Amino acid sequence: MKSRIPVWALAAGMTIFAAQASAADNAALAKDLTATISLLGLPCGQVVNVVTQGNRDYLATCSDKNRYRVYVNAQGRVTAEKR
Questions:
Q1: Which of 9, 11, 53, 74 sits a CA distance of 20 to 30 A from 17?
Q2: Is 54 exposed, middle or buried (0-12, 13-18, 19+ CB in 10 A)?
């Protein structure tokens, strides 16, 4: 007799996998934004929250409560603006 996996179980497993992948991607993005803000000479500490606003456009919240919009400007340079 064959064992079949219910559709709902497969969907739940895929949702958990996607959430884990998304969390890993978000952690990597936060680390990259921390480095970027630091290289731009701005105070931050560590990025603790990231909101994607568009393609290559992020709102980063730092551990020291500073918030920055980090994006690529029209000249192709990475820029951070304090919010």
A1: 53
A2: exposed
